[in-house]
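hi support,

uploading two proteins for the ticket. first:
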Amino acid sequence: MRIGTIVSFGVVILTSAARLGWAQQEQWLQYTVANEAWQILGDMGAASPQISPQKPQGIELPQFKCDEPLFARWNTPMVEAGGLWIAMDRTKKDGRYDSVYVDSDADNSLADESACQMYRQEQRETYFGPIKVVFQSEDGPIAYHLNIQLYDYQGSRYLYIRPAGWYEGAVTVAGQQKHCVLIDQNVNGTFNDKSLNASSADRIRIGKKDSRDTRFVGSYIEVDGVLYTTEIARDGAYIKLAEAENVTFGTVRLPDVVTDFAAGGENGLFVVKPKDGVARLPVGRYRIDYWRIDRKDDKGGNWALLGRYFSGDPDLSGFTVAETSEVELSVGEPIISTLGATQRESEYVFAQALQGRLGERIELTREGSQPQPPKLQIKSKDGTYDRTFSFEYG
């Protein structure tokens, strides 16, 4: 896998903590760029704008090499128009789309842009990037980079836009040096988005350099058991931390067997270990991110139930923490095992799944690995057909 990396270094001014107090400083981060950045950072969001052969109105276009260019619009609040146009071209008449134009200076023109050629192509996907765009701000131009992936197979086309750049660097927290990473998870060009919806909130990491402990960008973040307020630059260039004061908490009641619980919202993502079924969170609106139950069998084996990826009505996983009342959440056991059957001509396809009480997906593991999949016995009423089949993961 070819991964190219560009690092731009800024000047970091270190000020005496005794003079200014570290909590009040802007702690500057470094901007790093890579194609396929998700290979380096792990989980990163993706925007998937609609693709259309319809030429956009009011946009100057380049001289395309093919007769059927494709167009899409990437939404970002960093430009006055609210988004940038993207066009896809192909250099060979019967070939695949292998070049991309992006309105990198937000002037409503693709005619003044150079085509970005693909750097990797597979059977169904073509990859482009990093593609630089420049946002104008009161403090001057701001560079941002995109990675673009086009899925094109048997008439189905999907466009995936991911951030190619992120901010990271050393920050001081309570006198100790930590590593901070900022990720534009919702892929809109900014790094300080808070939201009740997990997919709309950006991401932050503070800890060891190789840590994947990722939290939602929010009003707070917990580091080493201490709660801090956060201020993050819109463009991600710096972060300010201050120990939180006068925070009002409320009580969340969970089943006693729940060993780990996480919930997120505009306050951030909180990962807690309930004590006697009780968790404490700052007052506000949240949605359950996941819950976990750990248990040992009679042979000492470690089993775990993990519930996450809530589907259906998002309000089922939502709750409000108030100072004056306790909120009780119906998570954990019992777990529902479902069996689905689909007929395909003369064949039947069966699928088994585990589902939680709120529609969440359930993962069952033993010693950190999936146990043997269950079996399915099919027997006719008169007993002439009696066979047992094993399910397969994946």
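and the second one:
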Amino acid sequence: MNGEKLKLSKSKDAFEVAKKYIPDGVNSSYRSAVVWKPYPIFINHSVGSRIYDVDGNEYIDYFMGYGALILGHSHPAIINSLTEQIKKGYFFGLPHELSAEVAKKIVEGVPCADMVRFGTTGSECVQAAIRLARAYTGKNKIVKFEGHYHGWHDYIAVSIHPPIKCAGLESSPTPVPASPGIPRNLLENIIVLPWNNIEVLEKCLERHSHEIAAVIAEPLMCNSGCIPPITGYLETLRKLTREHDVLLIFDEVITGFRLAFGGAQEYFNVTPDLAVFGKALGGGLPVAAFAGKKEVMQLLEDAKVIHSGTYNANPLSMAAANAALTLYQSEGGEIYKRLFKIGEKLIEGLRNAIEDTKVNAIVQGMGPVFQIFFTKRGVITNYREACAANQDQYELFHKELLKHGILIHPSMFERIAPSAVHTDEEADRTIQCFYEALRYVRAQQ
């Protein structure tokens, strides 16, 4: 593909068939035609840094399974680990030694992790972490930040991407359910704050700490584009929560094992009380975990606090996680050096392309995860500033990149997530395509 019209007729046909049996033709709202306009791309196979759709189109993939695939698609070590485990058994429903082996790796590498429990999805592990925080503190309210995403379950699916007209004041956001079907009485236990506003955070904890069990946050905001914490914000967040006897939960479903083996808490040197992991943990297999201080996690012993799941620590997911974590740690963390190097090269190339084409846009983030916003602002620090960026121009950019064989997510509220297997040659080609796509966006202004 060199910018010609993209042929997706087989994806369209597959989508029409799927809609006969599956609501909206997809199994996640974020894969729907509302997001992937006019219909989602259906994938046939993938390997390394490349993904291939049912129409035979080949893409250099920077979507990477929402960031799960640090090692790229179909990594041989993960395939081998899965193959060996299948021979032993692919489901037990009972404890097995491999889960402790994987947990040990996490405990040894993640700053907050004295103990670990496994689940299947990030959503359910966030729910477990919130339950633990409430049980440990004896308090009910949870503070979350506007624009942060912590899963789709009722207890925290609030003010994810709320319409601004419904969201109240920026300094005191109104909790907005993310979906019909979420009981409004649940909002009584959610306090929504603006991200990166220390003054509002401090006042909230001073007034309400007696009823707040925990503050939950993406330490690097990755679900409204890529919005880093301002200097000192995470340190202040940690200090204030500790002073007010409020637990701090980091949602590291995206940043865990991507920014560093120890996640964002290692990268930013700020240690929470609890943390949730997913995506990169399994190298592409469905697995999640929550980890934290021993005195909090021990509430799970003797079923004092209930956490269960038929497929928790499934042998195949554990085999994949074990292989992935082993590779992340190999050769002194060489994978992270590669991941940052290739990502920073793409960021620099994209920034140069923005400057040269004179398009109003900025790039935010760091090598392993970043995003482009079409805006005249010099920096975006919270959800409302991100909302003001031009989504239409971002969609044009996305579609033009697709025509050139480059795959990123079609929403500016997602992120670009390179892998450690992307090559310098692929980065060079991608940067050339950035130029072409930005010229196209400029021409449509």
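thanks. also noticed: The chain is about 40% helix and 15% strand.
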